[in-house]
Design brief:
globular; alpha+beta; single chain; 5 strands; Aminopeptidase; five-stranded mixed β-sheet; about 25% strand
């Protein structure tokens, strides 16, 4: 595999992230809102938005983690992982694994007790990927708000 750089995403990455995120969840994100969201995450303590970049400068993957406070047990934090996507032509190159390992390292830095993610029920390949990384399938629910 080509050398891969994982780095915090910046507003300049918005066009590449829009391409990736549209692959994950159409329609294409609105660019001004996406840039604002990237900047907000960059400024937020306990949040990390990653860009996976090849030596040619192309961004081939992204993933986001946000640490939240739990109020049960030891009241440790947990990391919510969202928007994990790798460009289709970069599947099976280790990009997704590298992104997830980086988010797990970030979770440890944030003293998180566990990581939590939700994946659409139709994404069976993604489910096999997460399970291969040690994630267990749990019952989960999601409600989209207007």
């Amino acid at each position: 595999m080509q050398s891969l750089t994982l780095r915090p995403a910046t507003a300049a990455d918005a066009p590449a992230l829009a391409d990736l995120l549209e692959q994950l969840f159409p329609p294409r994100p609105q660019m001004d809102a996406l840039r604002a969201g990237i900047e907000e995450l960059a400024a937020q303590k306990g949040a990390l938005l990653l860009a996976a970049q090849l030596p040619d400068g192309s961004v081939v993957g992204t993933a986001m983690g946000v640490a939240c406070r739990d109020l049960c047990g030891q009241c440790r934090r947990f990391l919510v992982i969202e928007n994990v996507v790798v460009r289709e032509d970069a599947h099976h190159l280790g990009v997704g694994r590298a992104l997830m390992e980086a988010l797990e390292a970030f979770a440890r830095e944030q003293d998180c007790g566990y990581c939590l993610l939700v994946s659409c029920s139709s994404r069976r390949g993604a489910h096999r990927f997460y399970e291969a990384l040690g994630y267990s399938r749990e019952a989960g629910y999601r409600k989209f708000l207007r």
